[in-house]
Amino acid sequence: MKKKLVSNHYIQATLRGALKAGHCINPLLAQAGIPPELMDKPRARITEIQLANLIRAVWRTTGDEFMGLTASPCHLGVFELMAESVLHSKTLGGMLHQSARFYNRVQNEIAIVIQEQAETTDIELTLQHPEYDPDHLFQEYLLLMWQRFSCWLVNTQLTFIQTRFNYPQPPHIEEYPPMFGEHLLFSQPTAGFKLPTKLLSLPIVRDEDELALFLRQAPLEVLRRVGHDSSLHAQIRRLLYQKGLEQLPTLDEVADAFHMTTRTLRRKLKEEGGSYQQIKDRLRCDTAIRLLTDESLSIAEISQRTGFTEQAAFCRAFKNWTGVAPSAYSRR
To answer: In terms of CB atoms within 10 Å, which end of the chain has fewer, N or C?
Structure first.
């Protein structure tokens, strides 16, 4: 399975609390396998595993499950206690109500309110001191944690009616649909999500051994990007990935595959804020980063696999895409 990549934004956001507390960032980056050069390269990208390792490193170093992004710390192990306490709930609804009661009792940084109605159920998450979370990483993580943990407990990819955020749409908006799905609302009075009330009757199917594995891998299961992006951009990206990077189709050939004219394809991509060249560049860049971090391949071999006939041309393109040379990713 190919590893998913996330924006470099999450490096800075994850480290913010640790930096504020006076911790040195280089050991944290080293524990996560993230080259320090990427810190000030906004176009660079990292894998989900690297981000999960960075969060774990921050947890260990700060001793705070809230990563220094709240006014008061949260002891390590609180999520584990909550997870163990809800495992014996019979249904998803019981789990959600029990987890909300748990967190509302053991800490004062997050207020959780569940409003259950006939058709829909709303889970509202409020940070009492949002000024400690300027990048909104903690808010995103909490929403993602409750959604992904719910899906995992019932072993079903749940359909969420909406996920809302109480801040404006961010520059890295392309990261959101793979995490939260397509029904996103920004600049809302509160943060939270809605799901059909009928889903609350789904049974909890996980056991203690499975939970132990989930917790050992945390937060990787929370960060895995499982949402389905149906945008034209994403559809073209999947088509190109299937065809292989060595000889990518022309714009005319892609238009034919989607049964539209080249002019219409350009217009639709522009409406989504992109272009065919940007899709090709992003796909080649992401593939190169995966190969550099996952495989024992030379840069020459990677340049060939990503459709370049000359290594020098690949290196120039990669630095233009990410701001760093390929060797920055391969030095681990």
So the answer is: N
